[in-house]
TrEMBL record:
<comment type="function">
    <text>Transfers and isomerizes the ribose moiety from AdoMet to the 7-aminomethyl group of 7-deazaguanine (preQ1-tRNA) to give epoxyqueuosine (oQ-tRNA).</text>
</comment>
<dbReference type="InterPro" id="IPR003699">
    <property type="entry name" value="QueA"/>
</dbReference>
<dbReference type="InterPro" id="IPR042118">
    <property type="entry name" value="QueA_dom1"/>
</dbReference>
<protein>
    <recommendedName>
        <fullName>S-adenosylmethionine:tRNA ribosyltransferase-isomerase</fullName>
        <ecNumber>2.4.99.17</ecNumber>
    </recommendedName>
</protein>
<keyword id="KW-0949">S-adenosyl-L-methionine</keyword>
<keyword id="KW-0808">Transferase</keyword>
<comment type="pathway">
    <text>tRNA modification; tRNA-queuosine biosynthesis.</text>
</comment>
<dbReference type="InterPro" id="IPR042119">
    <property type="entry name" value="QueA_dom2"/>
</dbReference>
<dbReference type="Pfam" id="PF02547">
    <property type="entry name" value="Queuosine_synth"/>
</dbReference>
<comment type="subunit">
    <text>Monomer.</text>
</comment>
<comment type="similarity">
    <text>Belongs to the QueA family.</text>
</comment>
<dbReference type="InterPro" id="IPR036100">
    <property type="entry name" value="QueA_sf"/>
</dbReference>
<keyword id="KW-0963">Cytoplasm</keyword>
<dbReference type="GO" id="GO:0051075">
    <property type="term" value="F:S-adenosylmethionine:tRNA ribosyltransferase-isomerase activity"/>
</dbReference>
<keyword id="KW-0671">Queuosine biosynthesis</keyword>
<keyword id="KW-0328">Glycosyltransferase</keyword>
Length: 343
């Protein structure tokens, strides 16, 4: 499909720079079939059914944004995907000033060698020393806020907690699974009391989620791979939910993409561990999920393509037009939508 089919006019002031407080006070647009309802995230227990199951991503965001020097050149690096204990694939700012074999000093005793340059222009950075790379990042790195936020304000101490979900426990993401930022222990307790279950999986979100689609046609866009895992016990419980008539509702596009990567053709979910580069566009047949809770995405993004695949492009264009006209807040720190294609 033409990428410009997924374009729309988003006023810059609609992009949220801070999250709602408390988290579950954020607004939530419910899209059931083609019907729209304005609600709050705190209303979620009333919008789902007993027997449904929400699936969260338990990845934890690491301080993966680094600023350093190579000689007199300023070099920025956003870690994208772990290769091994000391090496990461990274997107580099001012890359024309960095050559393979050169060392970037990120300060605080943290340095990395540009070991290789990959075909997509990213670098393999090999960190020196004996301390775990996670320790080095805590010392020298900052939280990698999306460029549409970081370009408008500096990252600060509040982001270390704001840009982390309550489920975060598996280090490795360089972007938050932002739909889950809306959840609080109180909301989770209300969901449990309403008979709505929850499960977790792990997908380490990479910096590729921030990259714009530069191709004119979706067939020409290449997704970056991300590592994920669904264990056998979790897969079994999710299959049991659907077998009993419940719905599997992915919380966030990251959970959805991993569930669909793990799905068998007949719709059951298999255990999964490894990389996925699944790219979901209209025409895709969903196998593993029955709904999605997600934030509002940017024009021409792979994530707006995904929600259009789930609900239909015309339905999502109408929903987003309503959200913009109704002053919903967009993107990582913004409001939520609950998408239920079955109505």
């Amino acid at each position: 499909m033409r990428v410009d089919a997924f374009d729309f006019d988003l006023p810059p002031e609609r992009i949220a720079l801070r999250p709602a407080r408390p988290r579950d006070a954020a607004r939530m647009l419910v899209v059931e079939g083609d019907a729209l309802s304005d609600t709050r995230v705190a209303d979620l227990p009333q919008r789902l059914r007993a027997g449904d199951c929400l699936v969260f991503n338990d990845t934890r965001v690491i301080p993966a944004q680094l600023e350093g020097q190579r000689g007199d050149a300023r070099i920025g690096a956003t870690l994208h995907k772990r290769i091994d204990l000391r090496r990461w694939q990274a997107f580099v700012r001012n890359a024309k000033r960095l050559r393979v074999g050169e060392t970037v000093d990120f300060g605080q005793g943290v340095a990395a060698v540009a070991e290789d340059r990959l075909p997509d222009g990213s670098f393999v950075l090999a960190f020196g020393g004996e301390e775990p790379v996670e320790v080095l990042l805590e010392r020298a790195g900052t939280m990698p806020l999306p460029p549409y936020i970081a370009g408008k304000r500096a990252t600060d101490d509040a982001d270390r907690s704001d840009y982390q979900t309550m489920f975060a426990r598996e280090d490795g993401a360089v972007a938050a699974p932002t739909a889950a930022l809306h959840f609080t222990p109180e909301l989770l307790a209300s969901l449990k009391a309403a008979g709505i279950a929850s499960e977790t999986l792990t997908l380490h979100v990479g910096a590729g989620t921030f990259l714009p689609v530069k191709a004119d046609d979706t067939d020409d866009h290449v997704m970056h791979a991300e590592w994920g895992r669904i264990d056998a016990a979790t897969a079994g419980r999710l299959n049991a939910v659907r077998a009993a008539g419940g719905r599997v509702i992915a919380v966030g596009t990251t959970s959805l993409r991993l569930l669909e990567s793990a799905a068998r053709d007949e719709g059951t979910i298999a255990p999964f561990e490894g990389d996925t580069a699944i790219f979901i566009t209209p025409g895709y047949r969903f196998k593993a999920i029955d709904g999605l809770m997600t934030n509002f995405h940017l024009p021409r993004s792979t994530l707006f393509m995904l929600v259009s695949a789930l609900m239909g492009l015309e339905t999502m264009q109408a929903a987003y037009a309503h959200a913009i006209a109704s002053d919903y807040r967009f993107y990582s720190y913004g409001d939520a939508s609950l998408l239920l294609p079955g109505g």
